[in-house]
Amino acid sequence: MTTKVTAIGKTKDDKGAVTGENEGVIEFNFGENLEEAVKLYGKDAVFNNYRQASTIALQGNMRRHLSQGKKGKELLAALKDWKPGQVSRQKKSAGEKLQAMLKGMTPEQVAATLKEAGIG
């Protein structure tokens, strides 16, 4: 079974300035399931790729919790039930969503937005 894989790479001049983008699309056979992937690429390659992807996913979860101020035992507690392949999104409260939206606005934009909402 093939999977369509798309990537975009930025082109740069000799000074490192971005001059454009190139996009590539290829079909690649990763295998239909675990057994086929092992048959195609071997146990070591499949396991090493799994470990790399899982490490990156765990680091992403760790960064999210660290940015919320968790560390030490609190960080460990937040991640104790994490499993590779598991996607967990924390829902933000309405207040947190509002704060995130307001952060990039000027005071004038905030005032205008509140006025439009009938608040200010």
Low-confidence stretches: none
Radius of gyration: 22 Å
Number of domains: 2
Report strand %. 15-25%
Average pLDDT reading: 91
Instruction: Order the strands across the largest sheet as they lie in space.
Output: 1-2
Order of helices and strands: EEHHHHH
Global shape? extended
**Helicity level, as a percent range?**
40-55%
Number of strands: 2
Structural class: alpha+beta
Count of discrete alpha- or pi-helical segments spanning 4 or more residues: 5
Largest sheet: 2 strands, antiparallel
End-to-end Cα distance: 57 Å
Descriptive overview:
- With 120 residues, this protein is of the alpha+beta class.
- The protein has 2 domains: 3-85, no CATH class; 92-119, no CATH class.
- Helices cover 51% and strands 19% of the residues.
- The chain is built from 5 helices and 2 strands, in the order ββααααα.
- It has helices at residues 34-41, 43-67, 72-79, 94-103, 107-116; strands at 2-12, 18-29.
- The longest helix is centred in the middle third of the chain and has 25 residues, at 43-67.
- The N and C termini lie far apart (57 Å).
